[in-house]
Write a structure and sequence with these properties.
Layout lengths: L14 E3 L20 H4 L4 H4 L17 E4 L2 E4 L12 E3 L4 E2 L2 H10 L5 E4 L9 E4 L6 E4 L6 E2 L7 H10 L6 E7 L11 E6 L11 E6 L6 E6 L10 E3 L5 E3 L26 E3 L5 E3 L18 H4 L12 H10 L22 E2 L8 E6 L7 E9 L2 E4 L12 E5 L12 E3 L1 E6 L13 E5 L29 E6 L13 E7 L15 E5 L15 E5 L5 E9 L10 E5 L4 H8 L1 H4 L5
Length: 590
């Protein structure tokens, strides 16, 4: 098969940025403002903003344990789909649930049934939020505790939005500010409730609440919920839910919009927040807290978090939610069993060692000369292999053989295995003229009556989001393709390549949306005839391999300015999961 492609090794960059002050605005923002300064707008990625991503967009964020990712959206699970392990909880309508996940799944479909407290339901239990004498001063009465005002310290729009949702205002808060002088002598003004939320809770009862002695500089929260929408001014950001916030409140790790849309399309982050590689900003306090927030896990990477002080558990239901995640089924993929050593690069790549690319497979066709490897593929779990559509024909299924654990194509190796095909699925919209949708699935036929047991292979993970890896990332490509000069090679080789930006300018009229390109700027590492269908793998912060692309096409072999073109696998997550079942490739709760 004719193909030219580039190889790349994905190294993760962990960048943290500091975020601006938290939000305490006395009045609503004005409807008319000055032109937006260039430096303010520089934080946002306009093309991404236009997609209107929110906390329900699983291309950008992880779904909650009581949700699942379908067609890029976090949708409600049914309660029975939650793990059975956990602590019983009570809802505001007095209904008992076996776990927090079961309640949240129920609430997902019936919003009136919010979380009340852990344990059994009692007839006298209430959790009240109220405004004091129409002053907008926020009073809270947790279950079995007295009624107090809320401390202004540590309060942000995260908490303000949760409080307003609790009060029935789905758009969250418009603004809040702090009041210091209250002359009412009949009230307990010596204490207040310190409240800390993650920002996506639906009830303040889910947040961390602590009664504390009030400091002299600690005021009380006055809250204004968003009741009507208005047109945003030039110096404001329009949230996906149509709320208006100041532009300098974007990309700071605080969920000002209430739907997280102000934090999901950020080139960099402001003070006190952490920049994920998928261009989202999370609070610094969420870093190294033993819960992955960034899609590729750099906020919890061992190399980054090693030696750092363990984060204090602030949120009352965080532990329960984290516990639920540990009970969700997870697959083991993308892990190499031994530590890889970094080798000096040579032109044309390096010879692979045993077990270094355990997801790499070779495709041969019986009846051809020497049954040589003419295409590669990537094992993705179960009995399934991913390859390029241009490598296979429906009429030749009976001739194909898939080799597992193969390194040298001419030397005998007992640690290899070969399989026939049970079925071949070529993408229904594959275009042989343009190489659009150049992707196919091969289901292997198990030996005897049993399932296929690939003891010499480990699956590569399937990426579910196109934002997991970006331009400039280094990844690895591997295969048995021809060397420069079109000479044959008989051993598996690999090389490092960089992910390139959109290659439309390099390949005008030939590079389409669901394609990716990668290579080296001097063309020293590239693929050639025989590499088609093989994997381009990128690695997350814990060195877990994701098949970012399969080799599709290119122009010449090893020529500067002509990177290899790949089928972008993240664009086909739903297509793959439809055929192989979602549970086979869902590494997380998506």
């Amino acid at each position: 098969m004719r193909v030219v492609f580039v190889v790349c090794l994905c190294l993760l960059w962990v960048c943290g940025a500091e975020n601006a002050t938290h939000h305490s605005a006395e009045e609503p923002f004005s409807q008319v403002g000055p032109a937006v300064p260039v430096e303010q707008d520089a934080y946002l990625i306009e093309e991404c903003v236009n997609n209107k991503y929110t906390h329900k967009s699983c291309a950008k964020v992880f779904c909650h344990p009581w949700e699942r990712c379908v067609d890029g959206k976090c949708l409600c699970k049914l309660p029975y789909q939650c793990p059975k392990n956990g602590t019983s909880v009570c809802s505001t309508n007095g209904k008992q649930f076996s776990t927090y996940c079961h309640l949240k799944s129920y609430e997902c479909q019936r919003p009136e049934a919010k979380f009340l407290n852990k344990g059994n339901c009692m007839s006298t239990e209430t959790f009240k939020i109220s405004e004091y004498k129409n002053s907008s001063l926020l009073q809270v009465k947790p279950v079995n505790m007295e009624n107090l005002f809320v401390c202004g310290s540590k309060w942000t729009m995260n908490e303000a939005n949760v409080a307003c949702r609790h009060l029935g205002f789905e758009l969250g808060a418009e603004y809040y500010h702090t009041v210091f002088n209250i002359t009412e002598h009949t009230l307990n003004l010596s204490h207040c409730f310190r409240i800390t939320c993650k920002g996506l809770e639906t009830s303040l009862a889910e947040c961390f609440i602590k009664r504390k002695l009030r400091n002299t500089g600690d005021g009380f929260v006055r809250l204004q919920c968003q009741k009507i929408l208005r047109e945003c001014s030039a110096d404001e950001f329009t949230c996906a839910n149509a709320k208006c916030i100041s532009l300098n409140k974007t990309c700071d790790g605080i969920n000002d919009c209430g739907d997280l849309s102000d934090e999901l399309c950020c080139k960099e982050c402001r003070n006190n927040s952490f920049h994920c590689r998928s261009n989202i900003c999370i609070p610094n306090r969420n870093v190294c807290n033993q819960e992955v927030d960034c899609l590729t896990g750099e906020d919890e990477a061992q190399a980054f978090c090693s030696g750092k002080t363990k984060r204090v558990e602030y949120y009352s239901m965080d532990a329960e939610r984290k516990l639920t995640k540990t009970f969700l089924p997870q697959i083991n993929c993308g892990v190499v069993n031994h530590t890889l050593t970094r080798r000096k690069r040579i032109v044309g790549g390096e010879i692979a060692s045993k077990g270094e690319f355990p997801w790499q497979v070779a495709i041969k066709e019986t009846g051809t000369e020497g049954a040589t490897v003419y295409c590669g593929g990537v094992y993705i779990g179960g009995c399934w292999v991913l390859t390029a559509a241009h490598c296979v024909r429906a009429t030749r299924v009976h001739l194909y053989r898939v080799w597992i654990g193969l390194l040298d194509t001419i030397r005998y190796d007992r640690e290899t295995d070969t399989y026939r095909l049970k079925q071949l699925i070529i993408h229904e919209n594959y275009n042989a003229a343009t190489y659009e949708n150049d992707i196919a699935l091969m289901e292997l036929k198990g030996h005897g009556k049993g399932e296929c047991s690939l003891k010499y292979s480990t699956p590569a993970c399937i990426p579910w989001s196109e934002y997991m890896f970006n331009t400039g990332d280094k990844c690895k490509v591997s295969g048995w393709g021809l060397e420069k000069g079109y000479t044959k090679q008989y051993v598996l080789k690999w090389g490092n390549v960089n992910l390139f930006q959109n290659c439309s300018e390099l390949y005008p009229g030939r590079f389409f949306k669901k394609m990716a390109c990668a290579g080296t700027y001097d063309g020293s590492i590239d693929s050639c005839k025989g590499d088609s269908g093989g994997p381009l793998v990128c690695f997350d912060a814990e060195n877990v391999a994701y098949v970012w692309g399969v080799v599709s096409w290119g122009e010449n072999c090893g020529e500067a300015g002509h990177p290899g073109v790949y089928t972008k696998i993240a664009s086909y997550y739903d297509w793959i999961s439809h055929h192989v079942t979602r549970s086979l490739i869902s590494r997380y709760n998506i």
